[in-house]
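#struct-pred
JK: can someone run the complex with iron/sulfur cluster? inputs below
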Amino acid sequence: MKLRYIDEFRDPEVARRLLSEIKKISRRPVRLMEVCGTHTMNIGRYGLRGLLPHHVQLISGPGCPVCVTTTKEIDMMIKLAEEDVTVATFGDLMRVPGSHTNLNQQRARGADIRVVYSSFDALGLALKNLKPVVFLGVGFETTAPTVAATIIEAKKRRVRNFSVFSAHKLIPPAMEVLVSSPDLRIDGFICPGHVSVIIGLRPYKVLAERYKVPCVITGFEPLDILQGILMLIKQIEKGKAKAEIQYTRAVKEEGNLKAKEVMEEVFSPCDANWRGFGLIPKSGLCFRKDYKEFDVNSYFDIKVDEAKEPLGCRCGDVLKGKIIPPQCPLFAKVCRPANPIGPCMVSSEGSCAAYYKYRDWEIA
Ligand code: SF4
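RT: done, structure tokens with the ligand placed:
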């Protein structure tokens, strides 16, 4: 079934047909991971979990950039804010707990921390000020090209008071860890639409071939998600493992070549730590030699004590799909959006926040 018109993305009749086909063809219990936090949010928002047969289980993955940022990285960002600098960040990061405090509390104590909507806004701050401006680069392949473009622009304009804390992460290496973990069972990946606009199909082809796991790049409208699930179940029932694109109106097989080129001009893959995963080889982005002058580490030796993880928080297990949020003993009791214990409840893309907001624990 092809979704052709924009109106169809929410057409109840098409939804009924997709659901009936899913029910008709799915025979075995399956665990499908939606890698992206926006999928998790929309699955909750449109009540999709409750519409699927019980044996089709959707589990959330590591696709919330703020959530996978480690406590140590948060501590380093907070420490940086103690220097005589302006720290520019996306708003999602402000309430993420570090070992002892968060950026929001530090701002209340007088640190110069500004919320911006893009890395170019941060560059704008640097152009207007003499004070050093540090942009906190948190995000996946979706965000990194814009940050790279900002750095190229800063170099072109010879801006000397702008630098970036690169905590960027790359999604395919984390998916590889998940699919090769012996204690996790993932029967298929609902692959992230936004990230895939940049990286295209190839990284998933490698995963599908090497690990025999079906991958479908899926859009974010409710019918996109249902169709992505149907495509995965079709593959599983036929014993196939391919990488496919459901989100054809946005994703090309080769991805966005220009964005990849810009990203590769500034950054090269390096090992990175992820919350819940630990060190994943080649899953972060470090500065290439020609752009080192924009690496915050060239100016500050940011030393922090060993990080203290939020007590009792199972965010790392949620990010790996080992548990679903209601299985965390603190969920909805101690930990709520108004009093988040871990980042998975803070972020607008966090799984715990999604389950809480859309009361998905009642049907989980
Ligand atoms: Fe952590 Fe709160 Fe989620 Fe539990 S519910 S895993 S404490 S963020």
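RT: quick notes.
The pocket of iron/sulfur cluster is lined by residues 313-315, 318, 325, 328, 330-331, 335, 341-342, 344-345, 352 (CB under 6 Å).
The longest strand covers residues 278-287.
JK: thanks, will look after standup
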